[in-house]
């Protein structure tokens, strides 16, 4: 097995150093944060401890009122050529711990969020081709939980395919099956999609434009009025992100995040694990 790119302490120390050179000015346009799990109890970088998530919500509360908005509000601003700083919280896949550990805090603070749902897992286990060892077999959300969150007016439900299909296996059938599931169980037709693994699929863009207002990638960046709505950029949030590094995601040009990504890429090329 290849060595890891440093333990949690090493990653956190590196991120603190990178965050020290970040600016403090709110970033123009829309910053879409990517979450997956909250309080799942694993060591996966995509599984945030609940207290860390709450700290991040506190940081978001310090932003100017009206900065944290639903996805559609952010897109309305972009469509109006408005570069007002906006932050959108997005969750991928549909892990049950989002309901157990994130939802109570989002609900109490009335924070809107988008959840891109792999509908074939609902009510069962999070298991798909290529799923990581720490996520495979974890509990999925139920339709009852989704209905409760949606009824609050805070949740926007998006399409993430039915089977969490690999990018090379993305088809119209996968898109329509997931949208049909959401329509049948929640009475809404999703207007938004997120590519699995965050990988754009150019061959499917025409079909995506016919079905959705937006499609989110995992490509790092912010979204400005000229950003292609079928290739929205997002910013990942990880378990070992210190508070200062998280705040740096909301300001400036994402320099610390880009620098960290380069370090990870170099480490992987050298045979280390992220």
What does it look like?
With about 270 residues, the chain is α/β, with parallel strands linked by helices. It is built from nine helices and eleven strands. Strands 8-5-4-1-11-10-9 form a seven-stranded parallel sheet. It has a two-stranded parallel sheet with strand order 2-3. A two-stranded antiparallel ribbon has the order 6-7. Helix 1 runs antiparallel to helix 9 (about 255-270) and helix 2 (about 50-60) runs parallel beside helix 4 (about 95-110). The model has no long low-confidence stretch (mean pLDDT about 90).
How would you classify the helix and strand content by structural class? alpha/beta
End-to-end span in angstroms? 12 Å
Mean pLDDT: 91
Proportion of beta-strand residues: 15-25%
- Give Rg in angstroms: 18 Å
Continuous helix count:
9
Number of strands: 11
- Global outline: globular
N-to-C series of helices and strands:
HEEEHHEHEEEHEHEHEEHH
Query: Could you estimate the helical fraction of the residues in percent?
Result: 25-40%
Report strand order across the widest sheet.
8-5-4-1-11-10-9
Q: Give a short account of the largest sheet.
A: 7 strands, parallel
Low-confidence stretches: none
What layout of secondary structure does this protein have?
Elements lengths: L7 H12 L10 E6 L1 E2 L8 E2 L1 H12 L9 H9 L6 E8 L2 H14 L3 E5 L7 E2 L11 E2 L3 H9 L3 E5 L12 H15 L5 E3 L10 H7 L2 E7 L11 E5 L6 H6 L6 H15 L5
Parallel strand pairs: 1-4, 1-11, 2-3, 4-5, 5-8, 9-10, 10-11
Antiparallel strand pairs: 6-7
Helix pairs in contact: 1-9, 2-4
């Amino acid at each position: 097995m290849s060595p890891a790119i440093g333990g949690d302490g090493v990653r956190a120390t590196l991120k603190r150093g990178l965050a020290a050179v970040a600016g403090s000015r709110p970033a123009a346009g829309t910053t879409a944060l990517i979450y997956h799990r909250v309080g799942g109890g694993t060591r996966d970088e995509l599984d945030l401890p609940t207290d860390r998530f709450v700290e991040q919500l506190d940081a978001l509360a310090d932003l100017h009122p009206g900065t944290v908005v639903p996805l559609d509000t952010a897109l309305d601003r972009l469509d109006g050529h408005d570069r007002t700083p906006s932050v959108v919280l997005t969750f991928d896949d549909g892990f049950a711990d989002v309901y157990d550990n994130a939802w109570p805090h989002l609900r109490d603070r009335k924070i809107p969020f988008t959840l891109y749902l792999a509908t074939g897992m609902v009510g069962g286990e999070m298991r798909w081709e290529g799923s990581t060892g720490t996520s495979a077999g974890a509990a999925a959300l139920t339709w009852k939980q989704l209905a409760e969150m949606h009824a609050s007016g805070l949740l926007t439900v998006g399409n993430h395919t039915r089977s969490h299909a690999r990018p090379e296996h993305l088809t119209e059938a996968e898109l329509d099956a997931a949208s049909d599931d959401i329509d049948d169980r929640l009475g809404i037709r999703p207007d938004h999609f997120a590519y699995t693994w965050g990988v754009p699929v150019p061959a499917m863009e025409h079909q995506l434009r016919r079905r959705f207002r937006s499609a989110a990638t995992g490509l790092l960046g912010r979204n400005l009025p000229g950003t292609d709505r079928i290739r929205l950029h997002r910013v990942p949030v990880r378990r070992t992100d210190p508070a200062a590094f998280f705040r740096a995601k909301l300001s400036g040009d994402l320099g610390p995040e880009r620098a960290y990504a380069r370090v990870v890429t170099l480490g992987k090329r050298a045979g280390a694990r992220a």
